[in-house]
Design goal:
The chain is an all-alpha fold. 74% of the residues lie in helices and 0% in strands.
Length: 372
């Protein structure tokens, strides 16, 4: 989200998110207090559980990696004026694409099969998002409705495949056989050990490097290419885009395909990086969290990375919190996450009138002082 015309950029991009986040944690503290626990102690445990030791940092960054992919997917579509709610289904299909390559081409050299699996995850996610994009651009179907429907279709498709087609023979659990080790994304702690660097064991893998590279790509694409400019013009004013010679239908379809490709990369982190097999529900709601990450990050890659880190910390620190304080169950942690989403999303402009009034007073005082 760009800064408002009457608001300095640092207010919209730094001050308001910080105030909203602080307000969310104040209200969360009140909830914890009502439950009979010390909110200061609880927040300390949450922070320590997310960043206090090596394994915790690894888990936090592992969660944040998936959130970066999902947040970027939502942001690209949003810049084109589209609200992509289908990140969950697109991530699901992305994992399927990566898994199929790992299952059937696992005998190839890793230098070939790993990039192929990554490309497959992006292509499967892009294909799943292409259909709602086409329906929006050519048939006028509402993108929110179609992407939500496609989440359910993706879940049903995966259930059928895992139960009836891809399940490992001779077992009851709906999961595939384990991939060949050559198809796994290397763990960071294993790579560090090769250089005699001690890093705590965690699910963090090289997908985080892919997330950083993709974030840079999205920034360059949106703000340094004519395709990105066309996408943003369509998002701001479709009529002006047509007047400028831009075909909105092509942009919408392309934006949704790119959005789906980014969401599909969640499968690289989850399937190739951690699970090493196809399983049901491996996304765990990442696609929906991506919406909050994009909103809180103002649809900018840097903001999305910071918001993804925050939600990764909430996920990892919340697990530690519910373990050390039994009264604060997983549901309470979800409430804390919901408060962050509420204040940083729905209530994002709550403090703007007061800040604008303060800035106007300061400008008037400065003008009066200059005139005197």
């Amino acid at each position: 989200m760009a800064a408002s015309r009457d608001t300095p950029a640092w207010v919209d991009l730094v001050l308001l998110p910080a105030l909203n986040l602080a307000a969310a944690f104040v209200v969360a503290g009140l909830v914890i207090l009502v439950l009979g626990e010390n909110p200061v102690k609880a927040m300390g445990i949450l922070f320590y559980g997310a960043f206090g030791y090596g394994e915790a940092v690894g888990f936090t960054l592992y969660y944040a990696t998936s959130f970066v992919f999902a947040g970027l997917a939502v942001a690209v579509a949003f810049h084109a004026g589209l609200f992509n709610i289908g990140g969950e289904g697109q991530a699901y299909l992305g994992g399927l694409g990566a898994g199929l390559v790992c299952l059937f081409l696992g005998g190839l050299p890793p230098i070939l099969v790993v990039p192929l699996a990554m490309v497959a995850s992006a292509l499967f996610g892009a294909a799943w998002a292409y259909i709602p994009g086409y329906l929006q651009a050519r048939r006028g179907s509402h993108i929110v409705i179609t992407t939500i429907m496609f989440n359910f279709i993706a879940a049903a498709l995966m259930t059928h495949l895992m139960v009836n087609v891809l399940i490992k023979p001779g077992q009851q659990s709906p999961e595939s056989r384990e991939f060949d080790p050559g198809t796994w994304m290397p763990f960071v702690h294993e790579l560090a050990a090769k250089f005699a660097i001690a890093v705590a064991k965690s699910p963090l893998n090289l997908s985080i490097v892919l997330a950083i590279a993709v974030s840079i790509f999205v920034w360059l694409f949106l703000w340094r290419t004519r395709w990105g400019y066309a996408l943003r013009v369509v998002g701001h004013n479709e009529t002006a885009a047509v007047y400028g010679g831009i075909a909105p239908a092509k942009v919408i379809i392309g934006a949704m395909a790119l959005s789906g490709a980014l969401a599909g990369l969640v499968g690289v982190n989850e399937i190739m990086g951690v699970q090493h097999r196809l399983i049901l529900n491996f996304t765990g709601g990442v696609g929906y969290v991506g919406i909050a990450v994009a909103l809180m990050g103002r649809n900018h890659p840097i903001g999305i990375a910071l918001a993804a880190l925050l939600f990764g910390a909430l996920y990892q620190g919340g697990t530690e919190l519910s373990f050390d304080m039994p009264k604060l169950t997983k549901e309470v942690v979800v409430v804390i996450q919901g408060l962050v989403i509420l204040f940083c999303g729905a209530f994002e402009g709550m403090f703007r009138p007061q800040i604008l009034a303060m800035l106007r007073r300061r400008r008037l005082q400065a003008a009066a002082a200059a005139g005197a």
